[in-house]
Amino acid sequence: MMVEQPPTYRDPMSRLAMRQLLWLGALSLVGFVALMGALAWASSITGGSAIAGRAIDVETGTITRALAQEPPQLDSTRATDQASIFILGHVMEGLLRYDASNRLVPGVAERWDIRPDGATFWLRDDARWSDGRPVTAHDFVFAWRTIVDPANAAEYAFILYYVKNGEAINRGELSPEALGATAVDDRTLEVEFERPVGFFDKLVAFAVYFPVREDFYRSRDGRYAADAEDLVYNGPFMMTRWVHGAHVRLEKNPLYWNRDAVRLNVIDMPYVTADTGAVVNLFKDGSIATATLGAEQLDDAMKLRWNLGRYSDGSVFYIDFNFRPERLTSNFHLRRALQLVNDSGELVNKVIGLPGYLPAVSLFPIWLNGVEGPFRQEYPPPVVIPDLELARTHLELAKQELGVAEIPPLVLLTGDAPIANKQAEYFQNLFDRALGLEIRIDKQIFKQRLDKMTSGDFDMVAAGWGPDFADPLTFGDLYASWNGNNRGKYNNPALDEQVRIAQNSLDPRTRMDAFGEIQRILIDDAVQLPNYERGLVYVEDPRLKGVVHRSVGTDPDYTTAYLVENP
Amino acid sequence: MLTYTLKRILQGIVTVWFIATATFVAMHAVPGDPLANQRATNEQIQRNLEQRYGLDRPVSEQYVVFLGGILRGDFGISFTQENRRVNDIIRENFPVSATLGILAVAFAALGGILFGALTALFRDRLPDLVIMFLVILAISVPSFVVAAFSQLALVDINVYLGFSLLPVAGWGTLRHMIVPSMVLGLGTMAYLTRLMRSSMLEITSSDFIRTARAKGLPPARIFLKHQLRNAVLPVVTVLGPAIAAITTGGFVVELVFAIPGLGRYFVEAVQQLDYTVIMGTTVFYGAFLVSMVIVVDLLYGWIDPRVRVE
After folding, report:
1. What is the CATH number of domain B92-273?
2. Domain residue ranges of chain B, discontinuous segments joined by +
């Protein structure tokens, strides 16, 4: 059957309307551009971020990079996060600092003496604040008192408990003036210890121990560190621009005592985004000098034959058990059974599949140092070989001890990140396949997960820990019965005793022996299932040299970085 | 007209109060401690923190304090960025979101009306088919995909050209705004095109157009004054909420293009349980949405005089 085309308007109106429409279109385009121009002008007077330069400018010594997030807190007495500590590590300096090969070197202190009962620091006379005033011992005393002052409610106050009366002040039992840190004169700082501490030199290099100048702090009237001009700097760089959430610019501090060693003039960070895809695109475009890669960008990077760098960011991830008596996981044989089927190598290589990640075999990560060499070489952790038969035997024992015919479903609490998903599903599958155990995944956002961890609403939880200082103790005391971070409430007097030894002894050998023992207990008693040590993969412009990446502290560190014209 | 306006404003205030209260209740019902952090603190510090943010008082009292704050226009201090007032966060970051949003909406509205009229004129012919196909595509592909792909395309173009035609990300100049605003407005533009097309078609076959033609009005006048003006009405109706949706919904675009807008605070605050920022941004955006709807209602009365009669 023939179908007739429906008649369409081909009258003059259609053509005229078309012309009208074109006119309208042209007119609105002009209007749109005018609107854009007006808005651009408006945002330039309200102060958007400045026009960014290219990734690297060798002539002016400028590098451009992106920030993953806005630094939440640049008041060193209250800072806790990596983003803030990265900035603070460049614009401030403590008594000691880490050099390019991660050795402790003099910072504001030119020499120091650490004894069992205290320490003395002699400050250099050419250390200056960015307004020209000298950095004195009083600045350290003021900062430290502020940290332990309960009114300041600093999360990191516990890291000053090694200083005499620190803990008592923090609990509100003594006034901040009672802190065992005194300025004998402007250039001599005398510290009394609460208990012997064998790693105080490492502690004073940490951002929380940085100086704060009292008169400046008070002059800001509660706005200290709120903006770039609300800070005074004593580090290699100073912050000259801070548009919140948009732009941070660091420039070389001309008054820094060791200014000749600083070779970059400007670190410009006009991009703030957590999207790794966007950051890699900026790098490809030549807008920024370095980018950290996510899993999605790896294939691309391989294809482009980028020269990738990788390093451990210091943190360790593991499955924690709930040891509260009413929980099945308080049973040793059940934990042992789970431990005997756990294979972190499989998890890392087949499931996570990111370069830079290492299978974890212990709570103590591979980068920690022992007495002379790496801790893990001096104290190799007991090896757990996956053994299905033995695991099933332990599972039977567990059932007998618990008096159940079948183990009821266990709850695995986990976070909402993609990698946490993969990990949880892997364990769900593994425990079901190997032991016939049902695992229920309880996925929660960070705060809710923390809440459930603290109240003990879980059987297992995917947890992790990042180091505060470069001593095994930053991990070693996690399972002490009194530690608030021991959220599974593990309680073992034998382990507690080793923690006390490690905390109170000054002899490196005795301390490391204690950590070795803690490591053994954690594995023999199946206290946790190590999963992975997190690694980061990054790409850097080949013209940028001398950037230091660290597992603990300022990371990355551009203090000693420099630029070359032709790599 | 005045009483109508006043009535609408009063209704708006009640709506905002309701939004604020519902958010407050929901926020406190969510499990989790906003002050909790990875590292456990001692009780003294916990108490001090609670005191600082007024969390040591009963929830009913917190509610009263919060309402008082709204009346004074003060939302308090952020939990996660302890040096910043929520007011400052809104003041500094909303203009960015608004700029982006206005551009996106202008782009969407102009494009939507023009393309909608075009497809109606060329009904069932090639331009119509091509545009409608693209419209379906733009509606169904989520903005994060469009954002990521357009950024990738920009990189390739810049690398190919050897200079930066348009910046890949960042904010501050006109050149930074072009691509993100188009990406953000694309979905709305597609939606408006469809809306415009169907309302144009409906109008074209209506009696008064036939009458206008019959009495010999010049076609240009018919098109502009009768067809376009009547067809644009439904578009204006959805434009108000669309402005609010676009300025609040820019989270992904802001993330991908590293734009310092308010959208990311809006989303991240909920994840971080940052009570004050949650309340501040919700109430602010709530008030913004409500006022947009009111403005559109009043505008509607101006375009279509029949609506003014109550």
Report:
1. 1.10.3720.10
2. 92-273
